[in-house]
Amino acid sequence: MLANFKLILVETSHPGNIGAVARAMKNMGMDQLRLVNPKLFPHADATARASGADDVLRSAQVYSSLQEAIADCQIVFGASARDRTISWPSMTARECAENFVKPVHAHETVGLVLGRENSGLKNHELDLCHYLLRIPCNQEYSSLNLAAAAQVICYELFIASNQQPSSSIGDIGEEALASSEQMESFYQHLLETMADIGFLHPERSKSIMRRLRRLFNRSQLDTKEVDILRGIFRFAQNHNQKP
Amino acid sequence: MLANFKLILVETSHPGNIGAVARAMKNMGMDQLRLVNPKLFPHADATARASGADDVLRSAQVYSSLQEAIADCQIVFGASARDRTISWPSMTARECAENFVKPVHAHETVGLVLGRENSGLKNHELDLCHYLLRIPCNQEYSSLNLAAAAQVICYELFIASNQQPSSSIGDIGEEALASSEQMESFYQHLLETMADIGFLHPERSKSIMRRLRRLFNRSQLDTKEVDILRGIFRFAQNHNQKP
Q: Out of A101-110, B4-13, B149-158, which region has the weakest mean confidence (pLDDT)?
């Protein structure tokens, strides 16, 4: 999955960041990591921060120039936080994912290039890229940590590759939702209980019941929950009949 | 912006992670950080990893229990990577952002709770949450670094805060939502009532209460509804004291 996406780190200073990027990639189902002139690699800090993603580190390929690292790529994105004086065409991470994670692109090799921790990519490196890749963020504090930027990009690719139906707000568990018929019996029982315990003021029962219906309708009770609540009602009703 | 969203870290072991979370927050325009029993804080590692976000660190509030940290929250999300045996209602980070970053929710306080690096949140902590918050990822390697998880969540909130307002599913009425503190009093009253009417089997009270919490948490009771339900509880409790 996403095997055609290559994450390329250029002249990373801190080996811990390389490890954290590997972890972020593996979390999102990616494993194609390329390193251009890493300052220190391999390194214990990289392995430590990679946590269980040391396989991604081990298979990382090291290059001596960005040109070599992207030689097989058909599409290349260069991550950039800064505004550039010359404007490149740009896409957000989400647009990149939505446009390029598609079966039609599955046989294209896509390079995602992330620059140095402090200074990003140089203009002559961006010249090798087709698009700037932007992560929307607070413009007054826009420098994401390298691994954090990789995390967001890989996350967007993963989401786009999994556009399967996601959980809905009503998806609450294994029990079947109560039917309308069951809910009407439930409301009838609630009404009787409130009368039995002396709570119900007849003149305001209508508005109280409307509020309670609104509450329990939006809760989408399942059958088990209806059983529990009606059990409580029964005990409340019978409470005064006990010795 | 996003000032009503509180990021809450529970028992973080590594101060560096706290710093990295602060940076991730500030990158996405957030600054409300709360810490429950951090192992080491303040700490030089936190300040170093926060980079320019040390203002977020400095204003972080420290609590001795999760309950205190979320006392003023109307909606609480608990991040979880693991599948749970009892299924809580859940939302993805994107669903959370799309549902709760809306003008209609701007006056609600939303807590986003992230657990320990190695073991996440405990079930009794999730009992205090309305929703599980999930980050879709590779199911074979699903443990995101704490700061990486915070980065994705804050990123989704930022993206949603920069989109046009749309109609809301969470817009449930004119009354203020009950706070966590009010809900805890509500659950205590419910528990006492069930004991008073003889419903509660002590040996199964825990699982019953968990189910009832799940039900009422996802219902997002407003203060008026809490008043009505507690009125009913009082009548049920006093029922046997009447002539």
A: A101-110
Q: Cα torsion for A176, A179, A182, A184, to the nearest 10°? A: 140
Q: Are B130 and B26 in contact (CB under 8 A)?
A: no
Q: DSSP characters for B106-148?
A: TTS-EEEEE-BTTTB--HHHHTT-SEEEE----TTS----HHH
B45 touches chain A (CB under 8 A): no
Which candidate, A60, A67, A134, places its Cα nearest to that of A95? A134
For residue A202, the distance in angstroms to the closest alpha carbon of chain B comes to 14
Per-residue pLDDT, B172: 41
Q: Which of B29, B198, B236 sits opposite A138 (nearest CB)?
A: B29
Residue A45's alpha-carbon distances to A7, A16, A145, B12, in angstroms, are 19, 5, 16, 20
Tens digit of pLDDT for each residue in A177-228? 888 788 889 999 999 999 899 898 766 778 888 889 888 877 888 889 999 9
CA distance B48 to B54: 9
Domain boundaries for CATH 1.10.8.590 within chain B: 180-241
Strand partners, A90: A132
Place of tokens 């420098």: A143
The owner of tokens 């409301």 is A187
- Predicted TM-score (pTM) of the model is 0.79
The listed range with the strongest mean pLDDT (A183-197, B143-157, B166-180) is: B143-157
The CATH fold assigned to A180-241 is: Helicase, Ruva Protein; domain 3 (1.10.8)
* CATH 3.40.1280.10 residue ranges for chain B: 5-161
Contacts B213 to A, Cβ<8 Å: none
Which residues neighbour A137 within 8 Å (Cβ) at sequence distance 6 or greater?
A: A81, A144, B27, B28, B29, B155, B158
Whether residues B20 and A171 touch (CB distance < 8 A) is answered with no
Say if A28 is an interface residue toward chain B (CB within 8 Å). Answer: yes
In this structure, whether the domain defined by A5-161 belongs to CATH 3.40.1280.10 is answered with: yes
Cβ neighbours of B176 (radius 10 Å)? 13
